[in-house]
Amino acid sequence: MSVALGHARKYRYIETNVARDTLTKFGKGDKTPDPYTPEQVRALMQRVEGTVWEMPVILGGLYGMRRSEILGLRWRNVDLGNNTFDVSEQLPFKVPPKTKTIEEMAPPKSNGRTLPITDLARPFFPKQFAAQEAQKEQAEKDGNPYYDNDLVVAKPDGSPIAASWVSSQFGKLLEDLEMPHIRFHDLRHTHATIFSTFCS
Predict the structure, then answer these.
(1) CA 126, CA 80: separation in Å to the nearest integer?
(2) Residue percentage of the chain with pLDDT more than 70
(3) pLDDT tens for residues 119-172?
(4) Helix residue ranges per DSSP H, 53-152
(5) Which helix (H) or strand (E) holds 4?
(6) Which CA distances in Å does 158 have to 120, 147, 170?
(7) Which of 161, 160, 189, 79 is closest to 126 using CA atoms?
(8) Confidence band for 38, pLDDT divided at 50, 70 and 90
(9) CB contact at 8 A, 14 and 5
(10) For 64-78, what is each residue's pLDDT tens digit?
(11) How far is CA 28 from CA 39, 107, 141, 174, in A?
(12) Which among 175, 176, 142 is positioned nearest to 156, based on CA atoms?
């Protein structure tokens, strides 16, 4: 089964080989770490405020969005007037290194969905938009290019962030913050509890 899924992944019919990738070693007993509690996610949100991790943690922790959905969310799909946003596309699988512009997004892994922008999450959207506008202005002042892909989460020059970067750097972030180790994907595992705790 693993070999067959490996071939399917090679030819991009699937994104991950679940037979090989599901179990990940994290220490004694090869136990996958427990997902964060709502209190731990709240602490993480506070500690990444004002950093590049702010929106990914908000969208992953509060909404259970996948990495590629977060990195492929575009402002055209955010409706602050009606306090909703659509998860209708995602960053394509295996974006080549140093990609600056994205011509087409991929469909989401699950069916598209419309999510509410709660009172807790709402301040982060205009804050992120304002930060990106400031980055555009600074790039223009410095005579540097800005790649406007309309992405909610992007590099300072507007180019897309690779999903692999999120996975590799998230562990380092938690280590620097001296917080328990989890995978970024593990934020999905508690979002239902978090949503009911924070947003009810």
Answers:
(1) 9
(2) 78
(3) 999 999 999 999 999 999 999 999 999 999 999 999 999 999 999 999 999 999
(4) 54-63, 67-72, 124-142
(5) helix 2-10
(6) 26, 5, 20
(7) 79
(8) confident
(9) yes
(10) 999 999 999 999 999
(11) 25, 38, 52, 19
(12) 142
Give, for 169, the enclosing helix (H) or strand (E): helix 163-177
Residue 173's SS3 state is helix
> 152: which residues sit within 8 A by CB, 6+ positions away?
55, 70, 73, 74, 75, 78, 125, 128
Smallest CA-to-CA distance from 71 within 161, 157, 150 is with 161
Q: Which residues face 115 on adjacent strands?
A: 85
Residues 6+ apart with CB under 8 A from 156: 135
| Residue 39 structure tokens | 């209190």
Strand, coil or helix: 84? strand
Hunting for tokens 């909610």 — which residue is that? 152
Q: CA torsion sign, 48 to 54 to 59 to 63?
A: positive
Domains of the chain from N-terminus onward: 2-19+35-194 (1.10.443.10)
